Amino acid sequence: MKWPSHRAEDRAWKPRHRQGSRDDRTLERIVVAIPPRIADLDYDPTGKVARAHEDAVIAVARLEAGHGQYLAPLGDFLLRSESVASSKIEHIDAGWRAFGKAIGGAKASDEARSQLAAVQALTALVDAAGSGPITIDDLLAAHRLLMAPDYYAARDSGSFRDVQNWIGGSDYTPINALYVPPPPELVPELMDDLLAFAGRRDLPVLAQAAIAHAQFESIHPFVDGNGRIGRALISAILRFRGLTSRVTVPMASVMLANTMRYFAELTSYRAGGADDFVEYVALAAVHSSSAAVDSARALAALPQQWRDIARPRSGSSDETLLANLLDNPILNIDIAGRLTGTTEASTYRALDRLTAAGVLVVLSESKRNRVWAATDILTELDALSSAIGKRTVEAMG
Q1: Can you tell me the distance from the alpha carbon of 314 to that of 337, in angstroms, rounded to the nearest whole number?
Q2: CATH topology of domain 7-294
Q3: Residue spans with biased composition (Basic and acidic residues) (predicted)?
Q4: What pLDDT was estimated at residue 277?
Q5: What is the 3-state secondary structure (H, E, C) of 147-210?
């Protein structure tokens, strides 16, 4: 269906510093994109877009109904998978060992802490959406969580930008930029309009989430973190509309599999191609939900595999830890001790036996903060992302 395109507007450019090339230093005018107001616009997909949308809703509902209620750990697993893939799109990739150390509270790399912050931000935004329409305060709170590990970025977090930003081109000016978002003075009004659209209940749910994401990325309301918060907005709208209540659909892995296609679809949206972007997100939901079902089955089979390997005594601390590993794939001595309800010495012995059996691996050898991980679960994170990527390339190119 017809959707309004962004408007181009010529603006004066006033650089803060005279840096960069001669062209940077002499730049006086720029062209910014002004997204349309969408709060009151209707959207009804037709033809192949409508069919893709229907398939997506069915796929997500099947994932939620078939696995969300009896395999609760799948919720945390998929949430972490979505956050990690979203971070990788921004070239933030710590690897699962470092990521596990960050989860366990051990000393970890900046990238690992950033990935953990993405998990926390997504969790906060989705949880808030479960209580009602997403608000400006919800977005700002999620942004503060996301930026917290970076000292310099954290100082400006939790507020909309007050400077002109741009994507691509020069480091110093918007010259040769791929996209120049609206000026900062328009951001509050545009965000109010966007959240009014996101808070409606009369729109096709996947289409609403897709358009809201594309509109958010076009407004680019923050200095940094727009991609990760914008992708989290998709999951939050699905939760707000009730399509999900326990699981997070790992659609960022589809975008990660072909980032050039993802960015091209966003560009198409800005030219009025809402149908193209809705179809793209709908197909992403189908492929990621299908792969997530396979991961759910793999996770469900793990407890028996662990018992077969470790052969714990009935009623032992080993057996208790194995029974709780799906919910707690990362352990430190405090978490393990709460689970076993025994002495620290007995808990350490149980952890050592499960490590010797190959069920656990030690991620951090620090005496003050030793961290163990169920490697089968963490490697399944990579397996899920790879499976989604393969399906994406085969089906979507």
Answers
A1: 18
A2: Fic-like fold (1.10.3290)
A3: 1-13
A4: 98
A5: HCCCHHHHHCCCCCCCCCCCECCCCCCCCCCCECCCCHHHHHHHHHHHHHHHCCCCCCHHHHHH
Written as six digits, the tokens of 81 are 């998978």
For the chain, domain boundaries: 7-294, 302-381
Rounded to whole angstroms, the Cα distance separating 349 from 14 reads 65
pLDDT beyond 60 at 70: no
Q: Tokens in use for 21?
A: 């090339």
pLDDT digits (tens, 9 = 90+) for 289-335: 999 888 888 888 899 999 999 999 999 999 999 999 988 999 999 99
As given in the structure block, the two tokens for residue 345 are 């010495």
- Give CA–CA dist 125/294, Å, rounded: 26
